[in-house]
Amino acid sequence: xxxxxxxxxxxxxxxxxxxxxxxxxxxxxxxxxxxxxxxxxxxxxxxxxxxxxxxxxxxxxxxxxxxxxxxxxxxxxxxxxxxxxxxxxxxxxxxxxxxxxxxxxxxxxxxxxxxxxxxxxxxxxxxxxxxxxxxxxxxxxxxxxxxxxxxxxxxxxxxxxxxxxxxxxxxxxxxxxxxxxxxxxxxxxxxxxxxxxxxxxxxxxxxxxxxxxxxxxxxxxxxxxxxxxxxxxxxxxxxxxxxxxxxxxxxxxxxxxxxxxxxxxxxxxxxxxxxxxxxxxxxxxxxxxxxxxxxxxxxxxxxxxxxxxxxxxxxxxxxxxxxxxxxxxxxxxxxxxxxxxxxxxxxxxxxxxxxxxxxxxxxxxxxxxxxxxxxxxxxxxxxxxxxxxxxxxxxxxxxxxxxxxxxxxxxxxxxxxxxxxxxxxxxxxxxxxxxxxxxxxxxxxxxxxxxxxxxxxxxxxxxxxxxxxxxxxxxxxxxxxxxxxxxxxxxxxxxxxxxxxxxxxxxxxxxxxxxxxxxxxxxxxxxxxxxxxxxxxxxxxxxxx
Length: 545
What we know:
The chain is mainly α. The protein has 24 helices and two strands. A two-stranded antiparallel sheet has the order 1-2.
C-alpha cells in the first residue's frame, strides 16, 4: 500500500511539476545564451553555465520515477514530451554537460572565446532538446542545433587539421540534415489528418505509401550521426581535432541525437523483417570495422572515436533486431545501453585530458578507474557495461546476432586495452606536472557516476539485480573479454608488423591516421571548401576556455 501510494504521489508530481521542468530544459540554456551576448553579464554567465542542464536532469529523474509528461504550446507550434527512453538518455547527457561545463568554464583567469561559448550553448540546447521533442518541427530544429553549431567546437582554431575536420564534419552534417528533411516530409505526407506529432506520424507509417522511402532516409540520416559505415568519416577527424571538453560532450551526449532519432522514427510496433535485417547488417559491420581500424591508431582520442563507431554499430544492430521482430520494449533497453555509453565515453575522454594535464601513472586510483571504465564497455562484470549488455540480450536473442554481439565484446576488450596502453603512453610523453585540483575532482565525479548511475537506473527498465550478479550471467560476460585479452597480448607481441604502429607524440594526434577517413575527407570537403572559416582560438588541452 505504501509503495502504491508513493508511486501515485510521484505520478502526480510528474504531471504537476514535470511540464515546468520540461519547459526549463530549453529555457535555462537560452537565458544563459542571452546573458553571454551582454558584455557586462558574460563572465558571470560563463561561470554559471553548469547550471543550465540542471532542470533537464531534474525532469529526467522525475520522468523515470513518476512516468511520462508532456508540454503543449500551440501558439509556438511546440510540443515536448518526456518518456522513459528519452528520460534515460536525458539524465545521462545532462549530467555529463553539467560536469564538463563546470570544469571548462569555472577556471579563474580563463580567456573568453565568444564563438566557442555560443557554439557550446547552442549545441547544449540541441543535445537536451532532441530527447524531449514531440513533433517533427521541434525535433528538426533541435536536431539542427545539436549538429550545426558543433562546427564551432571542432574548428576551434586556425590550425589546418581543425579547419579540415570542421569542413568534413559540416559536409556530413548538411547531407544528413537534407536526408532527414526529406524523410520528415514523407512522414508528414503519410499522416492523413495533417498532424506533425511524432506519435501520430509513426502510427500512420505502416499504411503510408511512402513508408519504405521514409525508412531508408531515416536510417541513412541518423546513421550518419551515429557513424554507421561508410558514413563515419567525420567522427575520427572531429574527435581528434576538438578540445578535450568538446570531444567529451560530442562523443558522449551529442552523438546520441542519432540514437534517439532511430528510437523515435523506427516503427517497433510492427514486424519489418527486411528492414530490420538490413539494419542488423549495417550495425554489425561498423561494430567490427571500428575495432579493426581503432587498434592501428596511436592518438587515444582517435581510438575512442573508433570505439564509438563500434558501440553505435552494436546499438544499430539491436534496433534492427527489434524492428525485425516487432519488439516494442526494445527502445527503453537500447536507451539504457546508450545512457551508459554517454557517461563512460565522456569519462574516458576526460581521462585523456587528465593524462595530458598530469602524469597519470602517478595516480593509481585514476589508472584503475580508467581501466574499469574502459573495460566496462566490453561488459566487465559488476559494472554498468555488464548491465547494458544484459539489457539488450533479449532483443538480440540466442542466434547469430547474439554470437556476433559476443564477438563484438571480445573486440571491444581488445580495443580498450589498446586505448589504455596509448593513454599511459600519453601520460609519459605529456605529463609535465599535476593537474588542477578542480579538474581531478570533476573527472573523478563523472567517472564514479559512470560506475554507479547505471545500477540506479537498471530497475527502471525492469531489470533485477539478482540476475545481474548471478554466476551464469557473470560467466557469460567474462569469456568474451578473456578472448579479447588474449588477442590484445598477441597484438602487443606482433604489433610492430602493423604499418600504423609507430611512435606518436601528442603534437601529432590531430593528424588523421585512417585511410578511409582521409579519402572521405578529400571528396566530401571539396564542395564544402570555404565553409571552414577560422574561429577564435580555444585551448586544445583539458583546461578552461
